[in-house]
Write a structure and sequence with these properties.
- 33% of the residues lie in helices and 7% in strands.
- The chain is mainly alpha-helical.
- Strands 1-2 form a two-stranded parallel ribbon.
- The radius of gyration is 15 Å and the shape is elongated.
- The two termini are 12 Å apart.
- The model has no long low-confidence stretch (mean pLDDT 81).
């Protein structure tokens, strides 16, 4: 038996529906548009949805 685990951090990229109203995307949208009173000092690892999909397909 073979097991492959893909466990990325937050995944961002184009959506299938074009809906950008999720919590994470809403936060980035507000930062870009200057609607946040201050930008939090933080860092996160980000993955592109297309890269994650490619890994899932190639590991099966």
């Amino acid at each position: 038996m073979e097991l492959t685990v893909v466990n990325p951090g937050p995944v961002f990229g184009p959506t299938l529906s074009g809906n950008m109203e999720g919590a994470s995307m809403g936060m980035f949208k507000n930062m870009i548009l200057g609607k946040m009173p201050m930008v939090p000092k933080s860092s996160i690892n980000m993955s592109d949805v297309r890269d994650v999909a490619k890994i899932h397909v190639s590991s099966s």
